[in-house]
């Protein structure tokens, strides 16, 4: 809800108070992390074998694609393990000139476990890593070191990626059954939302239509099984990483005002007004009755104030406290309701009194007198204190 504070203050400009200095490089040596000690021939042979197996599996996967599902650039995802000391090689894994992209990094959860990086390769770049390894094996630099050593020596193994390997959340959150449908955060590569929605529809994956946008990623909620996501990954280039949708409001807090209103309107379409004469009385700073999620449970005749001069609406001085308390009392945690699809039945109606600087007992008596036909549970009240003032709410 908008505040009533003016936003017409002039900007403060600080002028002529800085000193310009030329940049000077710090007088210190910067040592690159040491490279793993490798037997050049055996390491190249082991990597060549794992890369060839992964690429051959990718070729078979591409050949088996369903034309009705396939979207985007033909290609595949590879998972590459690096030792913890090999983090410096992450930026070298993908060549943007060949339209490769490092899409996700899975941090190790156990001491000594490797870092796992997910890279998308277009089909046209399928030989990229094999060429790197061949040069490492056969070619020396001017200093007598193996070519591509900073990258290849840090690569442990390579394999074709699946939904499980693109999952960057805690391992315990990954579904055990391939056909279990759960809500996911699908982190999309830049510019792939339309293709994602197309293939999701073809796979009967339920989507929430709104998204959180970052500079290179769009995050959407999808209800799907891991089997569905495996098919999506095999037939498209849209996914960057996967996480489980959490029961926290962070996704919704990241939405813009218009998108939050769209989610609210969708929920409102499933809200069922109370079918009981039980009402709960809230004594607070007032309630914004026109809030779309409050209005079904708050009739005009139950919207009161102790003093008419105060009005029954919420007051900016209290930052919408009464409206928020009414929402919490009526719906509880909104997150499962927003991501769900079932009807939401209001358990009771509200009876509201704007009541600050008044005794609670008097306010309750007024409430009972004004709506005698509505039954209220036994009243429970709590006094709230603040610095320099004490209020009954």
Write a brief structural summary:
This protein has 393 residues and is α+β, with helices and mostly antiparallel strands. The chain has helices at residues 40-63, 128-138, 149-152, 193-202, 226-235, 250-253, 257-268, 321-331, 334-339, 360-370, and strands at 75-82, 101-106, 115-122, 157-160, 182-189, 206-213, 217-224, 239-244, 271-272, 279-284, 303-305, 344-345, 349-354, 383-386, 389-392. It starts with 39 loop residues before the first helix and ends with a strand.
How is the quaternary structure best described?
single chain
The percentage of residues in β strands lies in: 15-25%
* Stretches with pLDDT under 50, minimum 5 residues: 353-361, 372-393
Major sheet size, sense and barrel closure: 4 strands, antiparallel
Mean pLDDT: 81
Strand line-up of the largest beta sheet: 2-3-1-4
Structural category is alpha+beta
H-E string: HEEEHHEEHEEHEHHEEEHHEEHEE
Query: What is the total domain count?
Result: 3
The shape is: extended
Percent of residues in helices: 25-40%
Tally of extended strands? 15
Ordered list of secondary-structure elements with their pairings:
Blueprint: H1 40-63, E1 75-82, E2 101-106, E3 115-122, H2 128-138, H3 149-152, E4 157-160, E5 182-189, H4 193-202, E6 206-213, E7 217-224, H5 226-235, E8 239-244, H6 250-253, H7 257-268, E9 271-272, E10 279-284, E11 303-305, H8 321-331, H9 334-339, E12 344-345, E13 349-354, H10 360-370, E14 383-386, E15 389-392
Parallel strand pairs: 9-12, 10-13, 11-13
Antiparallel strand pairs: 1-3, 1-4, 2-3, 5-7, 5-8, 6-7, 14-15
């Amino acid at each position: 809800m908008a505040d009533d504070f003016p936003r017409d203050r002039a900007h403060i400009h600080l002028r002529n108070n800085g000193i310009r200095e030329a940049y000077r490089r710090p007088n210190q040596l910067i040592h690159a992390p040491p490279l793993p000690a490798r037997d050049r021939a055996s390491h190249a042979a082991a990597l060549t074998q794992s890369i060839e197996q992964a690429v051959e599996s990718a070729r078979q996967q591409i050949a088996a694609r369903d034309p009705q599902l396939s979207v985007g650039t033909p290609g595949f995802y590879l998972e590459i393990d690096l030792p913890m000391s090999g983090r410096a090689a992450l930026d070298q894994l993908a060549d943007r000139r060949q339209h490769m992209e490092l899409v996700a990094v899975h941090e190790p959860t156990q001491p000594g476990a490797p870092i796992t990086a997910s890279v998308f390769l277009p089909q046209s770049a399928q030989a990229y890593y094999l060429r790197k390894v061949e040069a490492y094996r056969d070619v020396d630099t001017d200093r007598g070191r193996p070519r591509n050593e900073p990258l290849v020596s840090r690569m442990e193994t390579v394999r074709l990626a699946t939904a499980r390997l693109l999952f960057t959340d805690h391992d315990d959150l990954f579904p055990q059954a391939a056909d279990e449908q759960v809500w996911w955060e699908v982190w999309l590569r830049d510019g792939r939302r339309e293709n994602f929605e197309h293939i999701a529809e073809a796979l009967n994956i339920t989507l929430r239509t709104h998204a959180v946008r970052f500079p290179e990623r769009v995050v959407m909620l999808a209800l799907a099984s891991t089997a569905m996501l495996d098919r999506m990954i095999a037939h498209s280039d849209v996914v960057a990483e996967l996480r489980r949708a959490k029961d926290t409001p962070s996704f919704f807090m990241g939405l813009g005002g218009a998108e939050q209103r769209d989610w609210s309107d969708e929920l409102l379409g499933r809200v069922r007004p109370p079918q009981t004469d039980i009402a709960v009385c809230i004594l607070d700073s007032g309630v914004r009755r026109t809030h779309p999620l409050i209005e079904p449970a708050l009739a005009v005749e139950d919207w009161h104030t102790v003093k008419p001069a105060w009005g029954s609406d919420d007051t900016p001085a209290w930052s919408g406290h009464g409206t928020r308390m009414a929402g919490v009392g009526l719906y509880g945690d909104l997150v499962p309701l927003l991501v769900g699809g079932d009807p939401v039945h209001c358990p009771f109606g509200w009876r509201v009194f704007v009541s600050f600087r008044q005794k609670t007992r008097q306010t309750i008596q007024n409430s009972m007198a004004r709506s005698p036909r509505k039954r209220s549970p036994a009243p429970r009240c709590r006094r709230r204190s603040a610095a320099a003032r004490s209020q009954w709410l």
